[in-house]
Structures are given as structure tokens and as C-alpha cells.
DNA sequence: CCCTCGCATGGTA
DNA sequence: ATACCATGCGAGG
């Protein structure tokens, strides 16, 4: 998992209002055994907790695939609802507060769905993803 | 060919 | 049993 940064810009999941650059005390806080971080986008004062983290499978770490399987419960709880099996653009924050643009979709599965983030190539290279690593998605919000 | 896409399958919890 | 998800695998480009 990425190490906490002390000079990041972070947005919380609910804050859609743009570029109100309010300076909070910077830095990470430990809460419920997981890293959390103050929202820096607006004055809401919310604490952003990583939405999920997972141990990367060999497939998750495969550069040729460059996509990440999202645990279903997390996908349905925190990601935008999907009206069909089409990918939608989505922004996510990594645990350093850096923003990335991916695509979110599901695959129809036998009587269910599998959720994936696609287009992770640059991210995977940047994070040096390896199978067995644990990485976390800090926040996610739909593109405007 | 070889790669990507879109699911299907099957191991595992 | 039943659901989830890691990966297999065929079709299409």
C-alpha cells in the first residue's frame, strides 16, 4: 500500500463543488485501523476513508489486462450505479490523493455481475503493482 | 498471427 | 447449497 503523503490534495466522495482550496491540517489519521485523510476540496471537514483495499491477484497485476476487479459490495456501495454493461468514465483518488481517470463497468456473470476498473496501465506502472501487493482506492466520484 | 474484449467457467469460501 | 471472483478462452479485430 502506498505510504501516506504529507502534502496531498484530497477530495471526499461527496464533495462535488470544485476547487475551493481550503487548507486543513495536512496529513493522515488513523481511524478504525485504516488510513484516513481529511478532505481538502471543500470545508466539509469530512474524513476520507479508503473505500476498499485488496490484495492484488495475478490478473490484477497483469499489465496486459490493466484492469482491477472491484469487490462487488464495494462497487455497489460506493461507485456510481451502472445502467447497463457499458463502461463509464470515472475519477478515482489513490491513497496519495492523486487523481486518475479510469473506466468503470461490469461484466455479466452467471446470474450476477463482476465489477472492474479498466484503463489502469499507467497507474499500475506508477505503483509498480505486483501480485500480492495491497493497494487501496481512497475515493471515487463520477466525472462531471 | 497476436492482442483485446466480453463474457463463462470453475475453484473456493 | 450458493455466491463471489480469479482466470480461462473463444470471437473478432
UniProtKB/TrEMBL annotation:
The record ties this protein, via SMART domains, to: B3
Family matches, as InterPro entries: B3_DNA-bd, DNA-bd_pseudobarrel_sf
Q: What is its main location?
A: nucleus
Q: Which UniProt keywords apply?
A: DNA-binding, Nucleus, Transcription, Transcription regulation
The signal peptide annotation in the UniProt record is: none
Q: Which residues form the TF-B3 domain?
A: 52-144
Pfam family for this entry, one: B3
Q: What GO cellular component is one of the record's annotations?
A: nucleus
A molecular function (GO) held by this record is: DNA binding
Asked if Transcription regulation is a keyword of the record, the answer is: yes
What superkingdom heads the lineage? Eukaryota
Give the subcellular location.
Answer: Nucleus
Protein name in UniProt: Transcription factor
Amino acid at each position: 500500500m502506498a505510504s501516506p503523503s504529507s502534502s496531498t490534495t484530497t477530495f471526499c466522495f461527496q464533495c462535488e463543488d470544485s476547487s475551493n482550496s481550503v487548507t486543513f491540517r495536512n496529513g493522515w489519521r488513523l481511524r478504525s485501523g485504516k488510513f484516513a485523510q481529511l478532505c481538502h476540496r471543500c470545508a466539509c471537514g469530512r474524513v476520507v476513508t479508503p473505500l476498499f483495499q485488496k490484495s492484488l491477484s495475478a490478473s490484477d497485476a497483469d499489465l496486459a489486462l490493466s484492469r482491477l476487479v472491484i469487490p462487488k459490495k464495494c462497487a455497489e456501495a460506493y461507485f456510481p450505479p451502472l445502467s447497463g454493461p457499458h463502461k463509464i468514465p470515472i475519477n478515482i483518488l489513490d491513497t496519495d490523493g492523486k487523481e486518475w481517470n479510469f473506466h468503470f463497468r461490469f461484466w455479466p456473470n452467471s446470474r450476477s455481475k463482476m465489477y472492474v476498473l479498466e484503463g489502469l496501465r499507467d497507474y499500475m506502472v506508477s505503483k509498480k503493482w505486483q501480485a500480492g501487493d495491497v493497494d487501496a482506492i481512497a475515493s471515487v466520484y463520477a466525472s462531471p
